[in-house]
Design goal:
By secondary structure, the chain is of the alpha/beta class. It is 44% helix and 18% strand. Bound molecules: adenosine-5'-triphosphate (ATP) and magnesium ion (MG). Belongs to the KAE1 / TsaD family.
């Protein structure tokens, strides 16, 4: 069975071709709209929708060409139905449905977050729920228990900004370009993580909640009370201190959730799961506590088409594919 996965919820136009049984990613190209949005310091929904419209046919054709298949070989389509930006979601869903109708095949709407949590499964297919999951992305930061049958229970999420948003907004305040997560991580390498003590809100509270908006304010105050030259001269150390604060909060609450639930498997997904410090620190804890830890590949950590097809394949194998007539939903939590 050949699947086409389509992701268009935010600022990546992504398509992938996957073969199931045995599972193989035949192609997974994407067009990143970073340059379109960088000058605005964040994603502009209208600009994103237009860029998806311009690129989606090209990226889909690229996925087909790289997979060395033809259009008529596709048996089913999986597209992101939410959560995400309305315009971008509509572009992907309309494209998927139109193509499905032409080819007389089904098109299934997939939850983007279930996609992120299925990305690690692409490399470790023996992962079976129940387990603890941590989603850390541009729009989400949450600890969720996944049980068989795609049943999700929320342990805690961010009260305000997401971890990726904290990287991006803090980065812009210290003069970096959107999206700043991977830039901060690169600048931080080998630098002094104790250079400045940025706040770790809620870190010691007995719950699974996060908060990053105070960090943003602290960074703004820090930038205002120091000269531009000082910030520039110490950019590496400031980036390292920032990264330390964000990752420290994520790791502390994940350990809280592991202790609380007793799960021996942890799955991480979302763009911030590409972060080396997060991988290193969770890796250390899990190794010393006999916990299996699964991350996606670096490429599959951020938005891509393969993770959407992966979620559909997991559901197909379990006989739990969604209805084909689903609407797009900008707000679509995995668990409330
Ligand atoms: N190495 C890294 N370290 C820290 N953050 C990173 C790294 N690489 C990417 N990110 C962050 O990941 C985010 C993008 O992730 P992703 O593509 O999953 O987000 P999104 O799809 O926009 O949000 P969501 O999945 O919540 O809808 C950005 O905020 C970016 O800064
Ligand atoms: Mg995402």
């Amino acid at each position: 069975m050949i699947w086409l996965g389509i992701e268009s919820s935010c600022d990546e136009t992504a398509c992938a071709i996957l073969r199931d049984d045995p599972l193989e990613i035949l192609s997974n190209p994407l067009y990143s709209q970073i340059q379109e949005h960088a000058k605005y310091g964040g994603v502009v929904p209208e600009v994103a929708a237009r860029a998806h419209l311009e690129k989606i046919t090209t990226i889909c054709q690229k996925a087909i060409d790289e997979a060395k298949i033809s259009l008529k070989d596709i048996d089913a389509i999986a597209f992101t139905r939410g959560p995400g930006l309305m315009g971008p979601l509509l572009v992907g869903a309309s494209f998927a449905r139109g193509l499905a109708r032409d080819l007389n095949i089904p098109a299934y709407g997939i939850n983007h977050l279930e996609g992120h949590l299925s990305a690690a499964w692409l490399t470790e297919q023996d992962l079976e729920p129940p387990y603890l999951t941590l989603t850390v992305s541009g729009g989400h930061t949450e600890l969720v228990v996944e049980e068989p049958g795609f049943k999700y229970t929320l342990l805690g999420r961010t009260r305000d900004d997401a971890a990726g948003e904290a990287f991006d907004k803090s980065g812009i305040l210290i003069g970096l370009q959107y999206p700043a997560g991977s830039t901060i991580s690169k600048l931080a390498k080998g630098k002094n993580r104790k250079f400045h003590n940025f706040p770790r809100a809620l870190k010691n509270e007995d719950n699974g909640e996060f908060s990053f908006s105070g960090l943003k304010t602290a960074v703004r105050r820090y930038v205002e009370s120091n000269s531009p030259e000082f910030i520039q001269e110490n950019l590496g150390d400031i980036a390292a201190s920032l990264e330390d604060a964000i990752i420290d909060s994520l790791v502390a609450k994940t350990i809280w959730a592991l202790k609380k639930t007793g799960f021996k498997t942890l799955i991480v997904g979302g763009g911030v799961s590409a972060n080396g410090l997060l991988r290193e620190r969770l890796g250390k804890y899990c190794e010393s506590h006999g916990i299996r830890l699964a991350f996606p590949t670096l490429y599959n950590s951020t938005d891509n088409g393969a993770m959407i097809a992966a979620a559909a394949i997991r559901r197909a194998r379990a006989g739990m594919l969604p209805e084909t007539s689903t609407e797009v939903k900008p707000w679509l939590p995995l668990a409330i």
